[in-house]
Design a protein that fits this description.
The protein is an alpha+beta fold. It is built from ten helices and ten strands.
Length: 388
């Protein structure tokens, strides 16, 4: 029955359209072609103008209404030092192209209205105009130069590597389907060597245990970094292309198998500071879980995060990691609590190239418990002789 009604409605619409067409044709004949052309031109010009005004007003309204969804505005301010620069370049581009957009659209719809069709009206043909060509060449040239030069200057500043004598923290992000391994250097502040040939079931990163620098390296389940300290992230991948993306810090860099990349940035706001800023915006005062209206608010459950910004496979979405920016003191406390991979899982197992030997700085009690006594005594006595 519903099908029949729909079919009937379609037939009716077709019949009405044909009838309207006939009436219009008849009216044109009575009025004369010239008069009907004039009416048509007026109508087209009027509706084009209405559409133009609605388009421009709608654009301006939506820019204002959705501004808080844009990076760099309201709750989406950058949390890193270089991030502010990225945002200002973005804003400059939006403002300049926005002005051009409004001016060209106003001209387009205004001229379409002003020069609507009239019987006997002819188009003016201008084959060449030096003055006009000068202005429409020089204006975009100046605007483009401002955008490109300021963009290049910002790019060079943002992509600059750390200087040799600079104080910074270096961490390593290794991507694979579908997670990240975040490796920190231990107390020596130096990441140890890795070799892909050493990758195994128990050594997922291929850390080279013969290099003493790997001994204090640890793998963290979250990215924790101190506020105000320069961070250099070594970025690499074990399988396909991934992308190391920290949206709030404006950090984004491809993770490419076989081609290490890096990104240097300085976090400027701790997670708590950022959350307090979010509290000012009504959209973050709504409950985090819509099914639980009395539960925690969105600003309370907010967290910085690392995501993969390269569609890398079926589990791409699960490459999320929590990022915490804390005060230098809190960072120190967290750092001291971490356990090195080597001493917690490798030491004195069959994978340990130093099995049975006492390492410099290793507590003697541990070695006496786990090593053959004869071997240990010799080394300890040698060490104590050296000290003397
Ligand atoms: Cu990925």
């Amino acid at each position: 029955m519903t099908g029949f009604i729909i079919l009937l409605a379609i037939v009716l619409v077709v019949v009405i359209s044909v009838q309207i067409g006939k009436i219009v044709e008849l009216a044109n004949k009575i009025r004369g072609q010239e008069e009907s052309d004039r009416i048509n031109a007026d109508r087209t010009a009027f509706w084009l103008l209405v559409f133009g005004i609605a388009l421009i007003l709608g654009t301006i309204w939506s820019c204002y209404h959705y501004k808080n969804f844009m990076l760099g505005y309201g709750p989406h301010e950058a949390a890193s030092i270089h991030g502010k620069k990225v945002d200002s370049i973005f804003n400059l581009t939006v403002i300049l192209t926005g002005i051009v957009f409004v001016l060209t659209q106003v001209a387009l719809f205004y001229f379409a209205f002003k020069y609507k069709g009239r019987p006997g009206k002819k188009v003016l043909f201008i084959p060449h105009n030096n003055k006009l060509e000068f202005y429409w060449t020089i204006t975009p040239a100046i605007v483009m130069t401002i955008l490109v030069v300021s963009g290049l200057m910002a790019w060079n500043e943002i992509m600059a590597d750390v200087k040799e004598d600079e104080d910074f923290i270096e961490i390593e992000a290794v991507a694979y389907q579908f997670a990240w391994d975040i490796r920190y250097p231990g107390k020596d502040h130096k990441l140890g060597t890795r070799n892909y040939k050493l990758i195994s079931g128990t050594n997922g990163l291929g850390m080279d245990w013969t290099d003493p620098k790997t001994h204090d390296d640890f793998i963290a389940d979250q990215i924790v970094l101190p506020k105000g300290k320069k961070v250099r992230v070594r970025i690499t991948s074990k399988d396909v292309l991934h992308n190391f993306y920290l949206p709030q810090f404006r950090v984004k860099m491809d993770a490419i198998p076989g081609l290490p990349t890096y990104f240097v940035f300085t976090p400027e706001k701790t997670l708590d500071e950022y959350k307090l800023e979010l509290r000012k915006y009504p959209e973050y005062l709504e409950p985090s879980d819509p099914k639980d209206p009395f539960g925690p608010k969105k600003w309370e459950t907010f967290t910085y995060e690392l995501g993969c910004a390269e569609l890398c496979g079926i589990g791409h979405y699960s490459m999320r990691k929590v990022v915490k920016i804390v005060s230098p003191k809190e960072y120190e406390e967290w750092f001291n609590k971490q356990n090195s991979v080597y001493f917690s899982t490798v030491r004195n197992t069959d994978d340990d190239p130093n099995k049975g030997k006492v390492l410099a700085g290793e507590p003697i009690t541990t070695s006496v418990e786990t090593k053959e006594k004869v071997d240990t005594t010799v080394i300890i006595s040698k060490e104590s002789l050296n000290k003397k």
